[in-house]
Design brief:
single chain, about 180 residues, Helix Hairpins, 5 helices, 2 strands
């Protein structure tokens, strides 16, 4: 390091990123050259402040995400996890399940489209029948099988429940 940028003394044991300004007394980042509030010179130069910050940050691995401008060490946060399926179910939005059946449906439609091309009658009948069976298997699998996996039948009692402030028509003696 060059002599001008080498910090003479940095208290690496002090975990604080902010200090009280000696001039105005307000809280300011410790490793900026000037106080954020009054402009008082905290360090003789920017490179010296930067070198001091790097020495302070390298002294403890927990400080590696800190920046010179921070007043406190940043808290380690992971990405926010949102369960979109549960949220959609709670809002009453029907989501189609992730499935391979749409590809089966497309294959069936392709075979049906090939049956429309003027080939010989046995080829057209074969393509039409195979295409129709493939298409129906795809629709049945996607609509019935996959939908049952995603939204299993709920109890009849839970479907009759209603919010605390609502009244049902049977409580008022109405019949339809």
């Amino acid at each position: 390091m060059a002599r001008a940028t080498k910090p003479r003394f940095v208290d690496t044991g002090n975990p604080a990123l902010a200090i009280d300004c000696p001039h105005c007394g307000l809280l300011t980042p410790r490793f900026l050259q000037y106080c954020r509030n009054c402009g008082f010179s905290l360090w003789p130069s920017g490179p010296l402040a930067s070198a001091a910050f790097q020495a302070w940050r390298d002294a403890d691995p927990a400080r590696r995400h800190a920046r010179r401008y921070d007043l406190e060490l940043p808290l380690p946060t992971g990405p926010e996890v949102i369960d979109y399926e549960a949220r959609a179910h709670r809002l009453g939005i029907h989501l189609f399940p992730a499935s391979n059946y749409p590809f089966v449906i497309c294959l069936g439609m392709f075979l049906l489209a090939l049956a429309a091309i003027p080939f010989g009658a046995p080829v057209r009948w074969t393509l039409g029948i195979v295409g129709m069976i493939t298409f129906l298997i795809g629709v049945f699998g996607w609509v019935v099988l996959e939908d049952q996996k995603m939204y299993p039948a709920e109890d009849v009692a839970s479907s009759r429940e209603h919010a605390p402030g609502e009244t049902s028509s049977d409580e008022h003696g109405e019949s339809h």
